[in-house]
Design goal:
The chain is of the alpha+beta class. 53% of the residues lie in helices and 18% in strands. The relative contact order is 0.04.
Amino acid sequence: MSNFLPEESLPDEIEKSAEKPHDSSGASQSLPDKELERLRHMLFARELALLEEVARNQGAKQFNTEKVSEVLAESIILRAGKDRQLNIALEPVVDDILKASLSRRKNDFVNVLFPLIGPVIRKSIAETFLSMLGNVSQSLDVAFSWRGLRWRFESWRSGKPFNEIVLLHTVLYRVEQVFFIHSETGLPLSHIVNEEVAVQDVDMVSGMLTAIQDFVRDSFSGEEDNNLDSLQMGDMSLIIEKNDMAYIACVVRGTPPANFRSLLQESLALMMVEYTESLTNFSGDTTPFLTAVRYLQPLLLSRYAEEEKKIPFWAKAVPVVCLIAILFGASCIWYKKYTRNALLEKAVLSLNGHPGIIITNVIEHKDAPWEVLTFKDDLAPHPEKILEEKGFSPDLLDLKTVPFISYDSAIILRRVKNAVSPPDTVKMELTEDGTLVLSGKASMTWMVHSRDTAMSLPGVKRVDVTRLHDPLIEQVLDLVKDINGASIEFPLGKDVPVGENLVRLEKAVDDLVQLEKIARKSALVVSLTVYGHADTIGSEKRNYEISMARSKTIAALLYAKGSSIPISLYGMGSRFNKEDSRQSDGTLYEGDPSSRRIELRVSLSRAVSADSLFGNQ
């Protein structure tokens, strides 16, 4: 801050402070204050001067702001009249202000704009709705009148669209579009179109129109003053009124009135009076020509043919009634034929989807039953019965059947059921690979019979009976398990057990007798093998004899019970050698009691082995 003051000012300040007079009366009391004042001026002289300068500038700024505010509005008006630089400078600022204001105060803008836009929207909707009602009323009048029928017939005969025929008979002339185009550039300055006409690309139309005029002038005339005045395309014509700066082009359907070109000339003259300066300085901005619509709107002229003389009601009603009668008769014939064909198709489909029936050929007849050739399995129901169940009359179809063997799963199961007659406790299923799965409860005899029989039937590749079980067989297996697991031991040198072993022997004999009775019901044959054992005490011959005697004991008891089970007896002797009869301490080995025993082995036999039916059981 000290840079604002020159350094030469310091001695002057010191000198001034030194020249100040002192009060002699109070020298002793005020001397320190004066010294401090001088020291303050010496140290902060520059800063004090700067503060005074800031205060003076602040006052001047406030004064300048007030002066500028007085001339700001006039300055903006003068600058805006010279060029667009002020607009260019302010446009980003105003744009940002509007965006920020819209984002913060949307409701305020809606409340302000709604009173202005709402009535306009309601008026536009009302006018559009009224116009639509008028068009609908006119369309109905044309569509359902005698005149409309004649025009539809003419449209069908000539191949032209109905709308074109209507315009041809009703429109004498109609100006569909009016263009106001810049002569030099070919750019459209203004454009209006009849509300019943589809709008095309205005820029493209004006450009092509200018190009066509240049082509005609350059190819056939060669003079700049000669211009294309009109162009005819069927019932459409293009009428052009042009001067050096701009021209008006009108698209007219039909023949316009004789004074139409004079109307174009008058409108163009009025527009030249208002827009001459804008056309002279035209640089592509069409904004000055937005008001040109008021000169073009009167050129949208149209005139329609007067209504024909009304035809009496009976003259209109007679052809309509005749037409309705013809249509009704034709529709009845068509409906009858259609419903008959639909009914026959449904009947054929109901047969084709039934198991055991395949339709190979269908011959259709208009007034006779259809001929249907089918392949039919013997187990499938008759086609006539199927038709009756589906609600169709058998007389609809002339059925001819050829026998065949069906491989449909439902027919295969029916074929198996008829062959094996399964009990109610058995469930049958057929897998996709042709395996017949039997599950539930059944006798062993039926199991074997059903397996062998099913394998010989068409459509059955394998038979799975692992899910079948016979309650009697389960009881047989339990008895076999108990008998084979019986442990019967004998006293030393004896062939008849005592105590608990005798009870086990008697139980094994009773189980064998019961097993024989149950096996006989299941067509099984029971056979018994008995192995007698002895310990190592005594001679080998003696041990063999005692082991054989022990095996004969159970055979005798079994025969005493009236059993006819075939028994095979084996004396196994002792399990150890003679020299092994003494123990390590030299004493005589009394023998292992478990060696003095008999082993029982039951076998079941029939046409098929039990292992193949029950696995490892």
